[in-house]
Amino acid sequence: MNSFWAILRRDIRLAMRQGGGGGMAVGFFLIVVSILPLGVGPDLNLLARIAPGLLWVALLLSVLLSLDRIFHADYEDGTLDLLATGPLSLTLVVIAKMLAHWITTGLPLVIAAPVLGVLLNLDTQAFLPLMLTMLAGTPALNFLGAIGAALTLGVRRGGLLISLLVLPLYVPVLIFGVGAVNAVLVGPSPFGSPFMILLAITLVSAVISPIAAAAAIRLNLD
Amino acid sequence: MRLVAENLECVRGGRRVFSSLSFTCAAGEGLLLTGPNGSGKSSLLRLIAGLVQMRSGRLGLEGGDDERSIGQHTHYAGHLDALKTALTAYENLEFWAALYGGDPDAALEGFNLSHLSDIPAGFLSAGQKRRLGLARLFLGQRPLWLLDEPSVSLDTASREILGAIMKAHMAAGGLLIAATHVTLGVEFSRELKLGGRAA
User: Fold this and answer.
1) b/e burial code for range A69-81 (CB count within 10 A of at least 16 → b)
2) Which value does ipTM take for this structure?
3) A87, B76: Cβ pair inside 8 Å?
């Protein structure tokens, strides 16, 4: 278990020191959200109506942008070789790295979301549900994305390929995330049911993706 | 403890790197891998570490811990130094010490790197990075050492340290398998010549 925390701490420390990780994702989130009203026009009612969807799509793109950072650096400098022969099973290594990645990029995005909601005239009563759904949904985005990141390890400039692989998997998270926020804003369904499904998606991905990502990494080390 | 390999076959990228390769390496013994470029020295070391899958054959570590894979008995030092350029020399080793056990200060001292402990690894020279990577050998007790051209970019003094710790490892009953093109300053009990193009 010490090894698990050591990997988690090291990844967080690296993300803080090298910058780029969380800061870049939040910056990208901010830019996308501030550009969208310029395209849609200054109609505040319209913006308020589509704000949950816009915020969620921008969130997906921001998470996507940071995915190739999860494993690639460790793959290139040989750290993954040693982690694979380390005391911890590769599946647990992957979980530690995913968790660190979520703390350094997913969590800042969730915290930034309500601030960006103001930019889109999002109704104040939707702030809490928005943060809750994103808190529940971003781990799933990270977990599913990690599979794509692990699969494309051997590919140079695999960023675009990750997007192609992973975006379709994000669709359910998007649908139920936006669904839960809209349920609060316009109804008629209760907030609970889409939110529960969102949690279920996160739990399933938390179980499947470490195993899948570890297998993909083994394949790429070969 | 004894490493036994029988009829190993390794295929990478559709090319057969080697086949029907058999050897043993017992406790306290050193096995030297020689052969021209592309003869499969690195592949064999990665295969033993469990990083590369073997196509056929059998590989076993007699007297090892059955709960752990062969890879988890090894210190693998490949071509890459596995260092984080943003972390200092000490922080790099501190992380690996958390995984392998051992004392990062002693490991730095072992390769005469103590004066560089606060320097980010990105600012170290190639030889210093190599030494920092090899300093991991001081961390934790792992019986099987797999060294892939460990002396590359090392100066004479560091080569002597490397030779000394390899000798000490074998004297303590460890297994050593090293691939090299130059002399490492250690008496190896056996040599395994890997052929050029496998038929």
Assistant:
1) bbbbbbbebbbbb
2) 0.88
3) no
